[in-house]
Amino acid sequence: MIGKLIRTDFMKIRRKGIWFLTVLGPFGVVALQMVNYGLRKDWFIQQDIYSWFYYIRNVIAFTPFALILGIVILTSFMASIENETNAWKQVIALPVTKWGVYLSKYTTLAILLVVSTCLLTLFSLGFGMFLGLDGGIPYLDLIKYCFYTFFASLPVLGLQLWVALVSKNQGIPITLGIFGVILSYMAYFLPDWLIWKWPSLDNQWDEPIINVCLGLAVGLAIYLVGMIDFMRRDVK
Description:
The radius of gyration is 19 Å and the shape is elongated. The protein is an all-alpha fold. Helix 3 packs antiparallel against helix 8. Helices cover 76% and strands 0% of the residues.
């Protein structure tokens, strides 16, 4: 049943531009590096930082901002599809559970973000190879840090989806999302307990895996709380 719900959700987002946004996000991150290295290639060489290590750090520095912005847009789109057509009562009237509907929305969004993360890895690898960076290609590090950022962002995904699905006015989740995007841009100055800092993989212990573990644990908790709240509410 969950599989059918997920397929239905993917059918609903066809021709909505969501797949375009899924590709645009990672391409935009790498495009910034195209500009960065295009304008400052000689400087990188002079500073002896024309290497894969610094290139990956530059990519990951821009990824949290783009990822959180993408989460805000995708969750709002997902909720608005049902709201625009007043389809919530029709969905709930089907022989499905409300927790199944919520899980389907969450899973659909997670799949889109995984696809986006995979594309970020491939785009970053391709442009890095084009640049001819110094040192061997750190395939595992590139994959690891791209997906670390995704796992650390799961609490933001859970929170944004929860607020988007229970809000009659999509201005509320969008406002929350804008607030989160601004915070992610200022991640270096934020305390370690704020969920919008975690995708930056920065913390006082200098251990990115801590952010990943927090993202997985807190993300699951927020998902469960949001699902329970959604199940207890009347449909819109």
